[in-house]
Design brief:
This protein is mostly beta strands. It folds into 7 domains: 27 residues; 80 residues, Sandwich (Immunoglobulin-like); 77 residues, Sandwich (Immunoglobulin-like), CATH 2.60.40.4270; 82 residues, no CATH class; 150 residues; 85 residues; 31 residues, no CATH class. 11% of the residues lie in helices and 33% in strands. The chain contains 6 helices and 45 strands. Strands 2-1-7-4-5 form a 5-stranded mixed β-sheet, with no helix packed on it. The chain is extended and about 100 Å long. The termini are far apart.
Length: 605
């Protein structure tokens, strides 16, 4: 009887607990604490370019959940936030900030929804008279064709030469017929006037094939950047190496003066035809050799059983005595093909393989190159050192060494011929006097047959690099500063910019190559550097974190974050709690106005 009564009491108690649970469900926090699984509610930015979405939360199915509005100031350039939807494309259920909904029995993602903004656009005659082209109000990023100035009468003595985003002409220039996109702000194009006359700037392919750049109607005394002929190719030339004639620049005087792509050309008072200049020269002088040294002699006439002579890099230069004073080494010779290599072996045979003298140091040198480890180095003779002066020292290599270099040319039992790269002079030195030792080698590495061309400045000054690779063999795309030495034939790297990537087209709309990526070209290739200022020091010595791309109507292009001063506090209160100060514009570039509004409306204690 007691057992039955106890069982009945247990059943009644459990029923009461279930009834209370149904009438008063546990709040979300308590359910999660007790291990009752909830479903995720996640907010997605859906194309936002700034701000933060509300944090992820978990809710039990069936409970009321309040929808956040936009507490993190989520924003998108050219758009306004209008709410949330259960689908990214807005075809699901709409959710408005502040409303409540019943949590479903599944995870739920809410996607930010955006309404495209409209901005005014117009033309300003900027001193002209008549009727400006019609403007209007357009959706953000709408593509427009820039109008001509047919209805405008120029100021006296002036000619119309285009439009500009700034009245003084220091903004972005547009010619009639150009395409432009409506920016994320109201904008105006100002007519630009000049007292100059207009002439034709034509481009010709020369011996190249393809389409030359289009004719430009150029204004006298105005500057124009000479383009790279991306739709032209040179003729293919096959010899010891396989190259395609490479473009070297433009010339208007039959090749006497060659101006590189990217050169700023001032238009004279006459029509000009720029003819593309090409070279079939497959010379590898000054290039990085297969062993990682620098090529200082190229046997283009095929007079020797080898193709080139290669000198080790400056880091390999060391000092040693010539050695063996009083011992005569027979038949050390000058001249190409008969000197350095055989002379070095004769010296080593005569003086032995112990110790540390110049010929032995060069003979024992090893260097791992692109394909193999190379051990065929020797001590150059005087003629070969002369070629190093002419073809490498003149480019800046080895210029830190002002003293004499050892040659493998013995004069007599006590003296040898030493050579100075700095002034191409030679002198007889005693064999027990130390000199600089530069190992060299003769190579016939035929497989390095594909020519690569790097336009590092790409419009910023003309830096250009060359290299040869083995067809089909992979290599790592070089980074900033990795192409150095004699490969630099013109200009330098861009200042105050970072190499972002390479591209097969100057404008960056071709095949993209990330720095460090592995590629295996099978044809001669050209790479154009693509640059960014993000992360670079700004004028205020901080770091640039935003680039508008052109000059903003408010007069700025970059946003720069101040460098942290370790000597000062980096945290402060916002101030004036409870007081609205009108600093509520979250548009990029408006932080300065917000800051001023705070200062103007906040009491200073």
């Amino acid at each position: 009887m007691r057992s039955l009564l106890f069982s009945v009491m247990i059943i009644i108690l459990l029923s009461l607990i279930l009834l209370v649970a149904c009438v008063n469900p546990l709040d979300v926090t308590e359910q999660v604490r007790l291990g009752i699984a909830g479903f995720e509610l996640v907010y997605q930015p859906n194309g936002a370019t700034g701000g933060d979405v509300p944090e992820l939360s978990r809710h039990v199915a069936g409970v009321q959940v309040a929808v956040f509005a936009n507490p993190g100031n989520l924003r998108r350039a050219g758009y306004s936030w209008i709410g949330w939807n259960s689908r990214a494309n807005g075809s699901g259920d709409d959710y408005t900030g502040g409303e409540s909904f019943i949590m479903p029995e599944s995870d739920l993602a809410l996607y930010a929804q955006w309404s495209i903004n409209q901005y005014s656009f117009g033309y300003n005659m900027n001193g002209g008279t008549g009727t400006a082209p019609a403007g209007g109000t357009f959706d953000y990023n709408t593509s427009l064709v820039v109008a001509d100035a047919a209805g405008i009468t120029p100021p006296d003595g002036h000619n119309f030469y285009g439009w500009n985003t700034r009245q003084d002409g220091n903004g972005t220039h547009y010619d009639p017929g150009d395409s432009m996109s409506i920016p994320a702000q109201n904008s105006v194009l100002y007519a630009q006037w000049t007292t100059s006359d207009q002439y034709r700037l034509n481009f010709s392919a020369g011996v190249g094939t393809g389409s030359a750049p289009e004719e430009v109607r150029a204004w006298e005394n105005h500057d124009y950047t000479l383009p790279f002929p991306e739709n032209l190719i040179g003729q293919q030339v096959t010899g010891r190496t396989t190259i395609r004639q490479r473009f070297t620049g433009w010339s208007s005087d039959g090749g006497v003066t060659v101006l590189p792509a990217g050169h700023v050309f001032t238009m004279p008072s006459a029509d000009v035809t720029m003819v593309a200049q090409w070279t079939s020269d497959d010379s590898i002088l000054g290039k990085v050799g297969p062993a990682g040294g620098y090529i200082f002699y190229h046997d283009s006439a095929e007079a020797y059983p080898w193709l080139f002579l290669e000198a080790a890099s400056p880091s390999a230069v060391t000092q040693a005595v010539w050695g063996g004073k009083g011992t005569s080494v027979e038949n050390t010779q000058n001249g190409f093909g008969s000197g350095g290599g055989s002379s070095t072996l004769r010296i080593v045979d005569a003086l032995g393989t112990t110790g540390s003298y110049a010929a032995l140091v060069a003979h024992n040198y090893e260097l791992s190159g692109k394909e193999n480890t190379y051990t065929d180095w020797y001590l150059p003779n005087a003629d070969e050192l002369g070629q190093i002066t002419a073809n490498l020292y003149s480019t800046g290599l080895y210029d830190e060494f002002t003293g004499f270099f050892c040659s493998s040319l013995q004069y007599d039992a006590t003296r040898y011929r030493a050579y100075k790269l700095s002034d191409a002079s030679s002198s007889l030195l005693e064999k027990d006097l130390a000199c600089n030792v530069l190992p060299v080698r003769a190579g016939n590495d035929e497989p390095a047959n594909l020519f690569l061309q790097y336009y590092a400045a790409n419009g910023g000054g003309g830096a250009e690099f060359y290299d040869y690779i083995v067809e089909g063999v992979s290599f790592a795309v070089p980074g900033q500063g990795e192409l150095v030495g004699p490969e630099v034939i013109r200009g330098e790297w861009r200042e105050n910019q970072l190499l972002e990537r390479w591209d097969s087209k100057p404008g960056g709309d071709g095949n993209s190559y990330a720095v460090g990526a592995s590629v295996s070209p099978t044809t001669p290739s050209i790479f154009f550097a693509q640059w960014t200022v993000i992360g670079m020091p700004g004028p205020g010595k901080g770091l640039i974190f935003y680039d508008y791309g052109s000059e903003h109507l408010d007069g700025w292009r970059y946003l720069e974050a101040a460098a942290r001063d370790e000597g000062e506090s980096t945290q402060q209160s916002w101030g004036s709690r409870g007081k609205t100060v009108g600093a509520n514009d979250n548009t990029i570039g408006k932080g300065k106005e917000n800051t001023q509004a705070i200062i103007d409306n906040t009491a200073v204690d």
